[in-house]
């Protein structure tokens, strides 16, 4: 039976640490503040926003929501973004994307100030991940995976890691972050031949294929740690599932993140951590 | 006996293509121009500069050399960099580094305009390599390795590639560029355990360990393509050597770049290619 790498324990530890950091900042007169820039009311955005609000409240980070109507003019949108970029009382900006079609989303991404890019979507944030410097912030999901490995003391240096997926929000950044910790990383993707041989050869497998329950027993071996980044609704099973077939993987491997209750919840805490770090970078 | 992947043939093909591109630009009144910013007269810089001048001349790219004295003031240096950044008749800037200690090299790298960063050293250039977009230009050596593979029709999609080395000038960028071409890449480095097992399992091995003659017969198997990025003077053998033990590798593998005569010469051509591309991006 595998050890369950529960996100909850990681979140609790992060909350404790962040609460202290926020207290210290507030003692200096600084209130770490997240600005949320949302256009319209997409259910996914609202759901993530609720999670962020709750997590911020738990540690004392303030949130200002800038909710613009679905039909906001492009000019008004960019005025608001500009205001958020230049407001020194706002330390991090979460800009929900995709934006409505009449707003140039790529322009918005490029204009977002990297210093406040707590969601890790700007080019400079990604350059920072690639070069291992603090140019902005890492994509939250990638850092959440790293935070879980760190919290549960999973050794990385000299270990073989197979990453399945090469997206800019998780696969590619987590591969770089693992390499910065001296892991030997192989990035698998849709064109990779014989993925299961590669994953079976690894000490750690990070699954971010975006394909629900696509990694089963034949991809895994005993002794491994598995980080499952996927989360999708399974109509047949009538529950949330990851990219790993949990019931097949769990009896084989040493440790695995559950879905739900694994990476997902930690991601929001990383967003909050970035807001606090941003305030620290400016003020300490 | 392995096929020799000679740089010379790649350079000739590039020269032919670039000459045509330059002609087309000149017909529109545009002369692609490289600005070289050099402080002092370090032999390495001068040698690379001579190579660049020659290669530019061959295809009709103009070069303006801004040679500043070793003791130039920091202010004058940054004024010159600013001038180069803002001069619309200069399409690419080669800024020799490291700069003397009294000039902030990191500041210079950050101020260099990414649009003209034909040497691929700015954060935006590196972000472009990571995200596979044209934000600047790839580091020349990494692109030279890719150009050789392309010229000699080495299949990449679905192939396993082992990259030895994780520097920002070659290992990391070439790994990303190979992945963008759908190769399955493993990045090996000083903390990697059992590198030879990983390289033996690969179809293509890119060696940029920075350790002269560190990769021999026990790292290789038949059928492989080997790109040797290293170049160092071997005192014992009294000749230039790569990071691969050529005499051991050549009888085993299918194809290999010689040293000298492999990647090195192509690198300068990529620099010139970037200058032409920069002029095209602005004017076409």
Description:
The structure is a homodimer of 284-residue chains. Chain A contains ten helices and eleven strands. Chain A is an alpha/beta fold. Chain A folds into two domains: 29-116, Leucine Dehydrogenase, chain A, domain 1 (Rossmann fold), CATH 3.40.50.10860; 140-264, NAD(P)-binding Rossmann-like Domain (Rossmann fold). In chain A, α2 links the parallel β2 and β3. In chain A, α6 (140-151) packs across α7 (171-180). The longest helix of chain A has 21 residues, at 7-27. Chains A and B meet through α5, α7 and β6 of A and α5, α7 and β6 of B.
Question: Which descriptors apply to this entry?
Answer:
about 40% helix; 11 strands; Rossmann fold; 10 helices; 2 domains; alpha/beta; about 15% strand; 6-stranded parallel sheet; globular; homodimer; about 280 residues; 3-stranded parallel sheet
Record the SSE blueprint.
Two copies of one chain form a homodimer.
Chain A: E1 3-4, H1 7-27, E2 33-39, H2 43-59, E3 62-68, H3 74-86, E4 92-95, H4 105-111, H5 123-131, H6 140-151, E5 160-164, H7 171-180, E6 184-188, H8 195-200, E7 204-207, E8 225-228, E9 232-234, E10 239-241, H9 246-249, E11 255-256, H10 263-283
Parallel strand pairs in A: 1-11, 2-3, 2-4, 5-6, 5-7, 7-8, 8-11
Antiparallel strand pairs in A: 9-10
Helix pairs in contact in A: 1-10, 2-10, 6-7, 6-10
């Amino acid at each position: 039976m595998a050890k369950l790498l529960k996100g909850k324990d990681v979140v609790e530890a992060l909350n404790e640490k962040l609460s202290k950091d926020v207290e210290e900042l507030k003692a200096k007169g600084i209130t770490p503040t997240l600005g949320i820039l949302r256009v319209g009311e997409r259910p996914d955005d609202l759901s993530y926003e609720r999670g962020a609000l709750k997590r911020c409240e738990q540690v004392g980070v303030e949130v200002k929501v800038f909710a613009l109507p679905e039909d906001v003019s492009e000019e008004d949108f960019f005025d608001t973004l500009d205001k958020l970029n230049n407001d020194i009382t706002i330390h991090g900006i979460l800009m929900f994307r995709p934006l409505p079609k009449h707003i140039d989303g790529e322009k918005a991404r490029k204009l977002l100030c990297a210093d406040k890019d707590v969601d890790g979507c700007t080019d400079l944030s990604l350059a920072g991940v690639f070069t291992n410097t603090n140019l902005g912030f890492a994509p939250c999901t990638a850092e959440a995976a790293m935070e879980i490995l760190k919290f549960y003391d999973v050794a990385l240096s000299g270990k073989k890691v197979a990453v399945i997926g090469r997206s800019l929000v998780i696969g590619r950044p987590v591969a770089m972050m693992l390499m910065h910790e001296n892991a030997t990383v192989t990035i698998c993707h849709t064109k990779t031949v014989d993925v299961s041989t590669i994953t079976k050869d690894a000490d750690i497998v990070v699954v971010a294929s975006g394909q629900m329950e696509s990694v089963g027993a034949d991809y895994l071996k005993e002794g491994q740690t598995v980080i499952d980044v996927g989360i999708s609704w399974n109509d047949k099973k009538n529950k949330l599932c990851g990219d790993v077939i949990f019931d097949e993987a769990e009896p084989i491997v040493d440790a695995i993140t559950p879905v739900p209750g694994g990476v997902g919840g930690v991601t929001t805490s990383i967003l909050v951590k970035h807001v606090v770090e941003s305030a620290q970078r400016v003020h300490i």
